[in-house]
Design a protein that fits this description.
Number of strands of chain A: 16
Organism (chain A): Marine Group III euryarchaeote CG-Epi3
Number of helices of chain A: 5
Structural class of chain A: alpha+beta
Keywords (chain A): Exosome, RNA-binding
Number of strands of chain B: 12
Strand order of the largest sheet of chain B: 3-4-5-7-6
Low-confidence stretches of chain B: none
CATH class of the largest domain in chain A: Alpha Beta
Strand content of chain B: 25-35%
CATH topology of chain B: Ribosomal Protein S5, domain 2
CATH architecture of chain B: 2-Layer Sandwich
Largest sheet of chain A: 6 strands, antiparallel
Helix content of chain A: 10-25%
Order of helices and strands of chain A: HEEEEEEEEEEEEEEHHEEHH
Oligomer: heterodimer
Shape of chain A: flat
Mean pLDDT of chain A: 89
InterPro entries (chain A): Exosome_RNA_bind1/RRP40/RRP4, KH_dom, KH_dom_type_1, KH_dom_type_1_sf, NA-bd_OB-fold
Pfam families (chain A): KH_1 (PF00013)
Radius of gyration of chain B: 18 Å
CATH class of chain B: Alpha Beta
Protein name (chain A): K Homology domain-containing protein
Distance between the termini of chain B: 50 Å
CATH topology of the largest domain in chain A: Ribosomal Protein S8, Chain: A, domain 1
CATH architecture of the largest domain in chain A: 2-Layer Sandwich
CATH superfamily of the largest domain in chain A: K Homology domain, type 1
């Protein structure tokens, strides 16, 4: 066991690097990325633990997206059925978009005319059940089909870094590259603009994804974009 | 175990490769080496070289293998044709299907399968170079790859073998000892609880020798566990 993880096991430090099976000394309620055994709390993933407002969480470094009701996401059509679309949202299972949640008047069997395989949408997760199936909806707020542009994928855990403090990072990318960007909570990011602008923004996003846990990232990205 | 040799496998408490009976070969682990897999690991254990890659959780195919209340782990152990002296015919054979099966069973004990109903977690272990103890090396590498993929699990499982050579119980057999020794006992445990998730025995051991071999393999697993933790710490712990 390394020095660092040894410290984590013994200290009541609120933030530290933990591995699966590490004991988290806490009196807080269990949040995500943990499991309980014999009344004690252990980490279940590789990540950083934090003990905030009465809950102890472990934020995983990597991992698939877990849908949560109300999340705004970018989804890509993977399959069409007679009255539904199966949408790839980067989680374990494809999500369902039912025609009644699309806002369009879809004749039975004519789904592909509205949304073909590969088309992207800006949607909201509106139902998740215990069996792990989930549905998304286009009938909320600003949800819509995303015409043109491309979708790039980053780790869902890197999304806060992509947005930055008060949106500083994403504002910088938008302004410097002159692109329109929609960031889904699932790590799918839609970029629209001129060809070279898109690839510039894409490069920046890939850098953020790769170095999500390093410091001074906004400055680094600004420098990268000025080149 | 079957082979015969005039070689003296252990002399004055020192083995052919210069190790003491209770010493592991050198182990090097690197996490996150492959870009395309959700999680990956490269492991060198003596002359063994193993890659492990993890995908998932994802929809389980074929669908009749799905479990309504939990995920399944589909592990696959394969040896490259060039991993052994005589070219090995590629693909699954009797031996590798057995190892794949027992590895799946071992991982299902630690991965929190109940969090992903109907899903599948695919673990692929590729032996690039074999020098005895590849099933243990593969399981160890795959554990690190599972953690690297961010899959929730209760603990990582280290696997390590012990055996008997010239009537002496030794840890971590090398190729000569494996071929000409008297027994081989691969073991995988959950370090936090001490539970055994994989145990096989090839050869003959007396009850006392079995106890000794179990203790030795368990301590080997614990040493290995530290190396696994350090590997993940090195890949991700330094940041932030």
């Amino acid at each position: 066991m390394s020095e660092e993880s040894k410290n984590n096991k013994n200290s009541e430090n609120s933030k530290g690097f933990v591995l699966p099976g590490d004991l988290l000394e806490t009196k807080s309620k269990p949040g995500k990325g943990i499991f309980r055994k014999d009344g004690r709390v252990y980490s279940s993933v590789v990540g950083y633990s934090n003990d905030r407002s009465g809950y102890v969480n472990v934020n995983a470094i990597k991992g698939r997206y877990t849908p949560k009701v109300g999340d705004k996401i970018v989804a890509v059509c993977a399959e069409t059925g007679p009255s539904v679309w199966r949408m790839n949202i980067g989680s374990a299972f494809n999500s369902t978009l039912h025609h009644s949640e699309s806002g369009w008047k879809v004749p039975f069997g004519d789904t592909a005319r509205f949304l073909a395989i590969g088309d992207a949408v800006w949607a909201e997760v509106f139902m998740v059940d215990a069996a792990g199936t989930h549905q998304i909806s286009l009938k909320k707020d600003d949800c819509r089909k995303l015409y043109s542009g491309t979708v790039v994928q980053v780790e869902p855990t890197a999304v806060p870094r992509v947005i930055g403090k008060q949106g500083s990072m994403i504002t910088a990318i938008r302004e410097k590259t002159n692109t329109r960007i929609q960031i889904g909570q699932n790590g799918f990011i839609w970029i629209d603009g001129k060809g070279e602008d898109i690839s510039k923004a894409q490069k920046a996003l890939e850098t953020i994804d790769r170095e999500a846990s390093s410091e001074g990232l906004t400055k680094k990205i600004e420098k990268l974009l000025e080149k | 175990m079957a082979g015969q040799t005039d070689m003296e496998l252990i002399k004055d408490g020192i083995r052919l490769d210069g190790r003491k009976p209770d010493e592991l070969r050198e182990v090097k682990i690197t996490a996150g080496v492959l870009d395309n897999a959700d999680g990956s690991c490269y492991l060198e254990w003596g002359n063994n070289k193993v890659y492990a890659g993890v995908f998932g959780p994802m929809e389980c195919h074929p669908r009749h293998k799905q479990k309504a209340d939990r995920a399944i782990v589909q592990a696959r152990y394969t040896m490259a044709p060039f991993s052994v002296n005589d070219r090995k015919r590629p693909g699954l054979d009797r031996r590798s299907s057995e190892i794949s099966y027992i590895a799946s069973q071992a991982f299902e004990k630690v991965v929190m399968v109940e969090e992903f109903p109907k899903a599948s977690i695919r673990v692929d272990m590729q032996v690039v170079e074999a020098h005895a103890g590849t099933r243990c090396a593969a399981i160890t590498a795959a554990s690190v790859a599972l953690a690297d993929a961010g899959i929730p699990m209760r603990d990582m499982i280290p696997a390590c073998a012990s055996g008997k050579v010239n009537d002496i119980v030794v840890l971590d057999l090398n190729k000569e000892e494996d071929n000409y020794g008297q027994a081989d006992l691969p073991l995988a445990i959950i370090p936090s609880t001490g539970e055994v998730v994989l145990l096989q025995l090839d050869g003959h051991l007396s009850p006392e020798q079995f106890e000794e071999a179990m203790d030795l393999a368990t301590s080997g697993c614990m040493d290995l566990y530290k190396i696994m933790r350090d590997a993940l710490d090195k890949s991700y712990g330094g940041k932030k």
